[in-house]
Design goal:
about 40% helix, 3-stranded mixed β-sheet, 15 helices, alpha/beta, Hect, E3 ligase catalytic domain fold, 4-stranded parallel β-sheet, Rossmann fold
């Protein structure tokens, strides 16, 4: 497999730099990986951020397929666990699969949990659980949920589930279509391949499956996000990847390698150039709760692209609140089905909450009013940090992929920014009159502080909201 090494200086000792290079080279030789480049502090010399940018640009320039990013340890990417996750998510988006040279802790998330601090707390010590899981991984056994298309056999290995396997094969057949002339090598690299007429896109395939009554394992409609993850999953060609271990031919393949490699090329050719995301805060972050399970509603952003009649393209962003218990397709129509875990457009839920507050009698609002202090902001931050850590532990234990950490990371960063803004703005205590006047502002950060001064939480139902007012400290 093609590999790129990456390290940064962790001390002034020149021997540590040479040790990092040697560890990367040894890891690639022992794993039979082709080390195509090593990005170190000399590229460029200005700052570490620019050096990391070289690595990202290199991976983007590969154009298709995936590459292994080999690092001596997680501190070469970041000094904190959340910083590590941020970079792992970004590298995953550009096709980089990160592995550490440490033979005992090759998985960067597992390594980071044991070696990196988070929110001023020391690393998590969970060695006994990790050793048990790695022992199973070394035998190629199922850890956590099996991917769609497989079930756990009696001996703990992967076994094809016939009906689901047929759907997986059809997905690849539809997506690849009559896409190529020529053959694709084992690594997916063939500079002579020419893209011809490819199959339908993921949105169209999801529509085909849904119209035929096909559903995911959880009974939800298919979405482009779900199908994209399946097309990238090497488990379907018989490869097992867990905790830094890659076992080729571990189990029966559902899709032949040629079709899998072709799908990677098509996805890369259709992938737009990604820009750095700057998320605006969600007004009800930390306040909105699902009526059914009590979990906090996540703020999500989705982008939709389409082609106009004149051939030009357009794009629009959609923002939602969704209970994390729902499937990825939070806004899919589910005609005739119960919706125990709600999903709302951001603007609709924000407006419904403001309308409910404005409809409340003025004296009731006065009785519930309690100016929000920094302690409340800290509570919201601690909740976001807890959710983030739970998500990291889940992915590190094999229940999910690195891409699943993008939303918890965005939630954490948004809550941190909002908390910092609240602390900066709270030189003086907000008054009842100021809070009432703030209902007419369009700034989500200020509205968040205002609403939190009246309510402990907002219970979100399928089509209505229920503010739970604070006890208040009436004047």
């Amino acid at each position: 497999m093609r590999a790129a090494g990456y390290y940064r200086p962790l001390g002034s000792d020149a021997r540590s730099e040479q040790a990092a290079i040697s560890a990367i080279d040894r890891y690639c030789r022992e794993g039979f990986h082709t080390l195509s480049r090593v990005v170190g502090p000399g590229e460029p010399t200005s700052c570490e951020a620019d050096q990391y940018g070289v690595l990202v640009s290199y991976l983007e320039g590969l154009g298709r397929g995936e590459a292994l990013v080999v690092i001596p340890g997680p501190r070469h990417l970041s000094n904190t666990l959340d910083g590590l996750v941020e970079r792992l998510v970004e590298l995953d988006r550009v096709g980089g699969e990160v592995r550490c040279t440490d033979p005992d802790l090759p998985d960067p998330l597992q390594n980071g949990l044991e070696s990196l601090p988070f929110a001023d707390r020391p690393p998590v010590q969970n060695r006994r659980v990790r050793e048990s899981l790695m022992s199973k991984a070394a035998r190629g056994e199922v850890l956590g949920r099996t991917p769609y298309g497989y079930v756990a056999d009696i001996d703990g290995t992967f076994k094809i589930e016939n009906s689901e396997g047929a759907v997986v094969r059809r997905l690849f057949d539809l997506y690849v279509g009559e896409a190529y002339s020529g053959e694709v090598g084992e690594t997916g690299e063939d500079p002579g391949i020419e893209l011809l007429a490819t199959g339908p896109g993921l949105r169209r395939i999801a529509g085909i499956f849904n119209r035929e009554g096909l559903r995911t394992r959880s009974g939800r409609p298919w979405t482009p996000v779900t199908l994209s993850g399946m097309l990238r999953n090497r488990v379907y060609v018989g490869s097992y990847v867990r905790y830094g271990m890659r076992i080729a031919g571990n189990h029966d393949r559902i899709v032949d390698r040629d079709a899998f490699n072709r799908a990677q090329v098509i996805m890369a050719s259709r992938s737009p150039v990604r820009k750095t995301r700057v998320l605006s805060p969600y007004m009800l972050s930390g306040l909105a709760r699902c009526w059914s399970c009590g979990q906090g509603m996540h703020g999500l952003e989705r982008k939709s692209r389409w082609t106009r009649v004149d051939g030009s393209t357009a794009m629009r962003s959609y923002r939602y609140y969704a209970c994390p218990s729902r499937s990825t397709g939070v806004m899919e129509e589910e005609v005739g089905e119960e919706k125990p875990h709600p999903g709302w457009r951001e603007s609709d839920l924000d407006q419904a909450t403001l309308d409910a507050l404005r409809a409340e009698p003025i004296e009731s609002l006065r009785a519930s009013f309690s100016p929000i202090l920094s302690d409340t902001s800290n509570d919201n931050l601690r909740a976001a940090e807890h959710q983030f850590m739970e998500s990291v532990r889940a992915v590190a234990s094999g229940r999910g992929n690195v891409s699943d950490l993008a939303t918890p990371l965005d939630e954490l960063q948004t809550t941190r920014n909002m908390t910092d803004s609240n602390r900066a703005d709270q030189g003086g205590e907000i008054t009842f009159e100021d809070a009432l006047g703030a209902f007419d502002t369009a700034d989500p950060g200020e509205l968040h502080v205002t609403i939190a001064s009246f309510v402990d939480r907002v219970i979100v139902h399928a089509d209505w909201v229920e503010p739970v007012y604070r006890a208040g400290t009436s004047e």
